[in-house]
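Hi there, hope your week has been kind to you so far. Thanks so much in advance, here it is:
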Amino acid sequence: MNPQSAQQILVDNFAPWVLDLNLAVVEVGDTHAVLRLPWDARLARDGGGMSGQAMMAAADTATVIAVSAARGAYGPMTTVQQSTSFQRPVVGADVLVDARVTKLGKRMAFAEITLTAEGADEPAARASTVYALLG
C-alpha cells in the first residue's frame, strides 16, 4: 500500500463529513499510517484550539488506514473502543496523526495513535483504539 492507494480508501469509504476534514495520507507502512489534519479555523473551539472532536475523528480514520495496511487491503471494520487523552492545545498548526497497529488478530485489531502539531516536539494528544474486523 502506498499513500495514493491509502488516500483512495478515504475517498471510497468515508462519510462526507470526514472527507471535509481534508485529511491527507502522508506515509503508510506495513503496520502504520501517518495522516495530516490541516489547520482550519472552522475546527477551532472557544479559545482557538483545534477541537477534540476533529482530532478524535482523525485518529479514528488514521487507524482504519493503518489496519488496512497491516491487512494488505481495506476490509469492513468498525470501532469498538477509542480512548483519547489531550495533553496540550493545537493552535494554528496542522496535526500529524501517527497510527500504529500494536496487535492484529483474525477478528480484532489494536492501535496506538500519537497526534502532534507540526513542528512541535511533544504530542498534543494520544489515543488507543480497538477495532472489530468484519470481513
Q: What stands out?
A: DSSP finds three helices and six strands in the chain. Strands lie at 24-28, 32-37, 77-86, 95-104, 108-117, 125-133. Residues 52-71 form the longest helix (20 residues).
